[in-house]
Amino acid sequence: MRSKQSCLSFLLLTLVFVSGLSADWVYFPYEYNQIYKEKYALELELADIRKQHQNELNRLEEEKKELQTQNRNLTEDLELEKRNRAKEQDEYSDRMRDNDMRLRSLEKKGTDKERLLADENRKREEKDRADLEALKKKLEDRERECLQKEQKLRENYESKMDELKERIHNLEEELANLRKLTKEQKRELERLAEQTKEFEEKLAKEITSGQIRLKRFHNKLIINIDDKISFDSGSSELKPAILPAIEKIRDILAAYPENYIVVEGHTDNVPIKTKFRNNWHLSSERALSVLDYMLVNKNLNPKNFSSAGYGEFQPIVPNTSKENKALNRRVDIVVVPRATGTLNTNHE
After folding, report:
1. Model pTM?
2. Between helices 29-105 and 112-179, what is the axis angle to 10°?
3. Which residues contact 102 (CB under 8 A, 6 or more apart)?
């Protein structure tokens, strides 16, 4: 009996000791697993893109070899045709010499038939030469098109690789930050998860229509306001269509006074040509327009708010297409729980 009590006492002391040592290391399994699964999914996506890229490269290589084979065959046909033309030319020259002798014997009087034969032979040679040149040019164009496709595919692959590597790097940083969370920070993150759910429910219509996009990180929530319905091109004045969505956002934020709120303005890399000095100026004014309209709600504490303009210098995707530039033109409302404010908040 004493032995059993001693063992139980020893186990209790051990659990207390271990709990004291690892309290700061505990993190939410849900958060950790969610980030880990996303990382794993990205790695699978990366492997799949690599496989698709390799398959496409193999296909283009086969097509290139086939074009080269066709080019060689056409070159051989061209050489054969040249030899045949040379032989015909020799035969024609012999006939011409014979005709010359006949012409001289007939006091240098030519016939219409001989002139027609010469013209027909010349025209046939010109036509054959033009056809061969056209075929050769067609093959060269197809080979050049294949090379361009291959180069474009390689560039797209490298761009996707860089983007995936960046996302994986961010996920790894978030995993590292999750391990550093204190109990207070964990409680704040639980509240942030509740807030995110509330935003998703109350902004479901705006999210479905594309007016609003939500992006949840482990220590913050980003509410992205679509630029297309928020501002006219080159303007910082809010359009009426986006005002109801901003009103819903500010009403939800009023229920969570412990948050820090940063309103960020972003643009694409197209130089500005309006009253604003540059994209820095435009992005700052747009952020201020959203901030001013939010603070109309007197239940929000201005001390918890700030705004910033980043111009074109924090894109979420490369400014390589019209669609990507539209994504980079945005206003982000970044919600950061007070207890996690000291953690890394980079969300690009």
Report:
1. 0.48
2. 170
3. none
Place of tokens 């050489």: 79
Q: Tell me the two tokens of residue 141.
A: 């164009």
Tokens of 232: 């006219």
Please give the residue that has the higher pLDDT: either 81 or 335: 335
Q: 241: how many CB neighbours lie within 10 A of its CB?
A: 12
Tokens of 215: 């992006």
Amino acid at 38: E
Report the mean per-residue pLDDT for the chain: 80
Lowest mean pLDDT across 76-80, 229-233, 255-259, 296-300: 76-80
In angstroms, rounded to a whole number, what is the distance separating the alpha carbons of residues 216 and 193?
A: 9
Question: For residue 266, what are its two tokens?
Answer: 């972003």
**Ordered DSSP codes for 110-153:** --HHHHHHHHHHHHHHHHHHHHHHHHHHHHHHHHHHHHHHHHHH
How far apart CA 200 and CA 213 sit, in angstroms, is: 9
Pairing assessment for the beta strands 305-309 and 259-266 based on DSSP bridges: parallel
Place of tokens 């013209």: 119
Q: Where are the beta strands (DSSP E) in 241-329?
A: 259-266, 305-309
Of 213, 281, 282, 283, nearest to 242 by C-alpha is 213
- Given a cut of 60, is residue 107 above it in pLDDT? no
Tell me the two tokens of residue 137: 């040019």
- Gap between the Cα atoms of 78 and 111, Å rounded: 33
Residues in the chain: 348
